[in-house]
What does this fold into?
Amino acid sequence: MKRSYIILGSIALLVIILFMTYRSSYNKAITYQETVDQAWGDVGAAYQRRADLVPQLVATVKGAAANEKSILVQVTQARAGIVEAKNPGDLDKVGKQINSAINLAFEAYPQIRATENFGMLQSQLEGTENRINKARSDYNESIKEYNSHIRGFLNSMFLNSATFPKKEPFAAAQGSEVAPTVDFSK
It folds into this structure.
């Protein structure tokens, strides 16, 4: 009788150990799966940030550049009027135009900053692309952990492949390994 209790106890202990191992493996797989989903959501959030931010930045820089251009055109036209002045009356009129344009230039936009604005735009674009790259890297890292877990020796036997399918890491678009050409003539 004692021997049968030992055998039943051993079987029960083995079942409990197997159940606990399965439960632990299953819960860990769910945690990794949720981490993968969150990482992919972070990639989407970085894409959305870029979609929201870039058009606003470009519009702001374009507006500032257009404002500076109109001020420079006014000042240049006023200065050109001095050269074209034929008599003292014209010169007086041109002098008032120059004063007006110069005052407008310094009051409306005291310093020409279009180049700085374009530099800041470039910096923001670079930062945004770095955030996207970081989110993609984090996603790929979470995929690696998840796939390593579900493909492990015991886990591959315990876990249902339909519930925990192998995930594919982020892959670059076809042809993206070729550096793009930059053409400022357009």
